[in-house]
Amino acid sequence: MSGDREAGPPRGLMLLAISALVVVMVCSSGLLVIGGAVGGGLTATPPPTQGTPLRPDAPVPPQYLSWVLKAGALCPELGPAEIAAQIDLESGWNRDAVAHNPASRGGDAMGIAQFQQGTWASWGGDRDQDGRNSPFDAEDAILAMGHLMCDLAEWASQNVEAQHLRGDLLDLAWASYFCGRGCVLAAGGVPAAGLAHDYPGKVRERLAKYGAPNAGGVPVGPGGWTLPLKPGTYSVGSGFGNRWGRLHAGVDLMAKTGTPIYAAAAGTVLDAGCTSAYCDRPGSLNLPGCGLRINLGHAGRIVTRYCHAVRLNVREGQRVAAGQIIAWVGSTGHSSGPHLHFEVHHSAPPASNDNAENPITFLRKAGLRP
Length: 370
Hints:
Keywords: Membrane, Transmembrane, Transmembrane helix. It comes from Asanoa hainanensis. By secondary structure, the chain is an alpha+beta fold. 26% of the residues lie in helices and 19% in strands. The protein has two domains: 13-20 and 49-210, Lysozyme; 235-365, Glucose Permease (Domain IIA) (Distorted Sandwich). It has nine helices and 16 strands. The strands form four sheets. Strands 5, 8, 9, 10, 11, 12, 13, 14, 15 and 16 form a ten-stranded antiparallel sheet that branches. The chain is elongated and about 65 Å long. The two termini are 40 Å apart.
């Protein structure tokens, strides 16, 4: 249910379910001048969003499928699987669902997306142009959810950048949908306990039911390699080479905080954790280290390194597939803005400057277009 208004944490059937740009930046390895072309990919046209597509057998009621697809194409942060999983949690696809709440908590939650009247006044509308404007009009409500969630994702991104919030972009947006922006701001992120804390995880639990395998949509080349960020979501910044008298051992890829990071090939997590004094908030140029970092070991003694994440999605020793989401872009460690510092090492581990190679050249040889 949408609690985007400041009336407090309204709840609906979901509660019952639970209860039952040209910029100059500096990264840890040198100067980053953001510019260049948007990242490419394989020679095929890349997918248009970074959200999760629907799996072929996703249990979306047929009468709502086209509306879920429309709602999942409104912004890069969300795909149709995220919309479907959230509706599943909110109402179980019941367009007539009602959950009674006192006026002090925003009043009744209504319809397939469990909008309260105050939030519907701001985000609702006759979006299917059938002459009816109501949270009980499922088509209207699905698109309204999409528009509101996109706005919440953008709001969360801005507040993470301003260091008012910490955490994963979508988790922050989902928590705000549940309990309101003020609730999340007061907590400095997803609340530490309670239903608002549980809400993002409950949505993510349902993603497996709706989301397509290799849900990130990154194309994997014939050699088993893929780009670490989805084509169209980043710009190439500072490249491999000497910077200020030292080796910049990778490439910097500029992307928004919360952009998914993908395993460049199948392999094993060699290590995953914080390499700076702190990683629970954005870093600075005075903070040494790579922030939240992952090293993956691949066949042929190749190691790939991923630095400055806002959140990790893997643990040491875990096996990962090519294109699997392993983390999300952030600005932890020695960094002045969100980006992925990506390295490739041969004859490794250990990974060091002595065995680092140009990631752009490596990826091109693998048939990719970074």
